[in-house]
Amino acid sequence: MPDTNVASDxxxxxxxxxxxxxxDVPASGDTPGWTWSHLDLVNGQSRVDVGADExxxxxxxxxxxxxxxxxxVVVHDNVVCGVLPSYPRDGGADDYELVYWxxxxxxxxxxxxxxxxxxxxxxxxHASTGSSPPREPSGLIFACIADFSRAARVRLTxxxxxxxxxxxxxxxxxxxxxxxxxxxxxxxxxxxxxxxKRALTPxxxxxxxxxxxxxxxxxxxxxxxxxxxxxxxxxxxAALNERARSLQDELSSRLADETNRRLYIVSLVTTLVxxxxxxxxxxxxxxxxxLWSGEDAHYGTVYAGITCVAAVLLMLAxxxxxxxx
Length: 325
Hints:
Blueprint: E1 3-5, E2 19-25, E3 34-40, H1 44-52, H2 58-65, E4 72-76, E5 79-86, E6 99-105, E7 109-114, H3 119-128, H4 137-171, H5 180-208, H6 210-213, H7 223-283, H8 300-321
Parallel strand pairs: 3-7
Antiparallel strand pairs: 1-2, 2-3, 4-5, 5-6, 6-7
Helix pairs in contact: 1-2, 3-4, 4-5, 4-7, 5-7, 7-8
């Protein structure tokens, strides 16, 4: 059981100087112990303390205190560091905007920093304070990556279910409510999947090239399962994006067909009333000797109306003869 020193509040605690928690994992057998400090970047003192900590090389300190949240895993002077994604810990059940946290790790020390509480880091906290903590800092980082991968796959399953509902509606030609809003929903699903893909692709690339990229201490038993978990997420994203593109194409086709149908109806009505419009325009001329006009033409309006109807019927017959209907 690790020796844990945590100043707690309602969400795991915020201690002085921006330290969220500090954990000492004791040695076990031939495995040396290690320490983990987790800091809150919102507290300005955290940035100052990490920037002045000469244990870390200057390049590592710049990464830990920087503003760039591009996901990556790099090695500086045998120190593995980087920026990793997570789902927010303090958001609602439907809050899936990614947050990012920073880390730097050696064989006996790991420091992490975040602006927003992260679920993956909290999972690492519970693992480190449990009965079987990670044997070394690399195991902690791999556990956090694996936890995010599991959460991402759960989220992707939910997004896939939403696509199922859209697909069912598209396949039901009698369904209503298929419009641009549906296209927007598909676009939101694709966007969310692409954001996760962009966050995990650099991690996957580093794990792919682990023998060249990572120190030997990081080639432990957790490496392959973590790599498989990340690749599983990327495979799910590729499948989801393929389905979303297919549904967008189907939806575009349906919307185009609906637009063409409406334009056809408008064109048809316009074509049918053109002769009647001509007749009414002709009889509307204020000229002398106009047919069916004057005081003696008691049924002139009736004759003109019959002429309009006859013109529409004649146009209808011509269109049917030309197979335009």
